[in-house]
Amino acid sequence: MGLSIRGKINSSFLILVMVFVVNGITTIVTLNKSKALSDYISKVIDPAQQERDDLEDVLIQSKMYATNWTFLRTDQEDKIALKELQAVKYPRIKSGLNSLYDQLRDRKMADSLTDLFIGFEQLIAIEKHMMVTLSNFTDYDDPVKKLEAEQLIEDEVIPRTAHLINRLTRITAYEREAKIREFNLWETYSNRLRVFITILTICLTILAVILSKYFTAIIIDPINKIRHIVNDLGKGITRKIEDEIKKDEIGDMIQSVNRLSQKLEETATFAEETGKRKFSLSYTPLSNEDTLGKALLKMRENLKTSEEEIVQTASYLIQRNKDLEQFSYIVSHNLRSPLANIGGLTELMQLSGFEQEHEKELVGELAASVKKLDSVIMDLNNILQIKHTEGKAKETIKLSDLLSEIKLSIDNLMKNDGVVIVSDFSRVDELLSIKGYLYSIFLNLISNSIKYRQADIAPVIEITSYRLKNTARIVFKDNGLGIDMEKRGDQVFGLYKRFHSHVDGKGMGLYMVKTQVESLGGKISISSEVNKGTEFRIEFEIK
Q: Are 523 and 539 contacting, i.e. CB atoms less than 8 angstroms apart?
């Protein structure tokens, strides 16, 4: 039974080959007959008809030229034409017609044409006698010769020509009938071929449907099941084909796939248990060449060896991270106290007055530096606090109210710079979040749009909210200076990254915005174009 499917396929292909061979032979024979008929019509009958028409013209012209010869003494052109017709034109047409009529399948037509040629040549002999009679210009003055020539025209040339044309007309009619018979025969072959092709097409269609269902039942369906199993194995899903397994090639494939699925399931179980730090489960590789199985065993040994080191390292890193954060808090707290003292001293020095103007400038610069350093320490402290949202209560925040609070806080700045803020929270106006973080995000993005505006254009800020399935999107769009995203797009949210040196800033605003957004479980993206503006898109999951 091992070759049963191959044998069935070979038998099916043999049937198809036989059908196509029969079709090919029949088609070729029919086409050859059709071609022969077509060639016979186009190369024999049609040219013969054309030559016959030319012969009819010769008969008519011969009568006309002979008549003119008799009655028109000075018509030299027609006399030359009559001689050329008798010596050149007629022999050429006769030769062509004889050659074509020799190929006709009906000898009756060829014999009729031969009789016509004999009659016309007798007529030419009469015409030549007339031409000899009136060969000179002075012959036309001889009444006897003139009368003899006229009688030849009236008694012989004209009647004989009419008789020959009638005979030629009968030949033409018979020839037309022959052409119709041949054409009908050609059409019969064409119809026969068309019917045969139609029947063959129907038979092939039926045979194709039968073979399709047959192969689907014995090959395609089992292969599809195997394909689905293999696809599932590629996705990490292990299962078996539970159908009856036949003793053929497909059955062997199903058994191989089932064995593979079982072994991969054992491998997956081993890998899962190893991942759970259960190192006691026994496992045997699929074969001596099982690279994956050997790698898993090696991995288990390595994991078992390094587990304690990993636990110790993780514990050490956690503790060091806590120590680093604690150290950052202590440093920022301890630095602020002496900075406050320095700030107080600079204020006292400024109040006490200075004798020299440069002393006053130095103290002023010192006071400004102290304020900047204090601001940096405060920002660092805020960043450390942002990363810990535990214990901070979330509340329902109305975005329109939040924006109103921010507008109120920067009212003077908006009036002085002619800032226009357009908002649309009709789609999403409420979010469950930490108000302080959301307030800081809005304020930073609005402040940036105002700070980095174009000099000759009033700042316009558009804030719009959208709902996308289970996501709320808030879009901030302005008409400011913009950022060259190709050169500096990867630095936008970096710490201490600044893009416009002519405006004061520490380069921490967007870093804090991104940190706060991610602390709230959201994500932020940006698109910008130089001198056209910037658009920030913030997304939060909502229920």
A: yes
- How does pLDDT run across 313-344, given as a tens digit for each residue? 656 655 665 545 555 555 554 555 565 667 66
Q: Write the DSSP assignment of 485-499 as a string of letters.
A: HHHHGGGTTSTT--S
Domain extent at residue 338: 306-386
Q: CA neighbours within 13 Å on the CB side: how many for 107?
A: 0
Of the candidates 207, 226, 252, which is a domain's last residue?
A: 207
Whole-angstrom distance, CA of residue 399 vs CA of residue 82: 114
Residue 262 lies in a domain: no
Read off the tokens for 351.
Answer: 């109040």
* Contact yes or no for 371/343 (Cβ under 8 A): yes
Q: What is the pLDDT of residues 435-455, one digit of tens each?
A: 989 999 999 999 888 888 888
- Cα–Cα distance list, 306 to 203, 311, 312 (Å): 72, 9, 10
Tokens of 442: 């809005």
pLDDT per residue over 488-518, tens digit each? 656 777 665 555 555 555 557 788 889 889 9
Distance CA 505, CA 24 (A): 87
pLDDT at 112 over 70: yes
Q: Are 89 and 56 in contact (CB under 8 A)?
A: no
Query: Which pLDDT score is estimated for 1?
Result: 43
Please choose, from the candidates 406, 405, 401, the residue with its C-alpha nearest in 3D space to the C-alpha of residue 429: 401
- Residue 317 shares a structural domain with residue 346: yes
* Amino acid at site 374: D
* Shared-domain flag, residues 434 and 362: no
For 130-198, the DSSP string reads HHHHT-SGGGGG-HHHHHHHHHHIIIIIHHHHHHHHHHHHHHHHHHHHHHHHHHHHHHHHHHHHHHHHH
Amino acid at 364: G
Task: List the one residue out of 460, 462, 442 whose CA is nearest residue 509.
Answer: 442
In one letter, which amino acid is 268? A
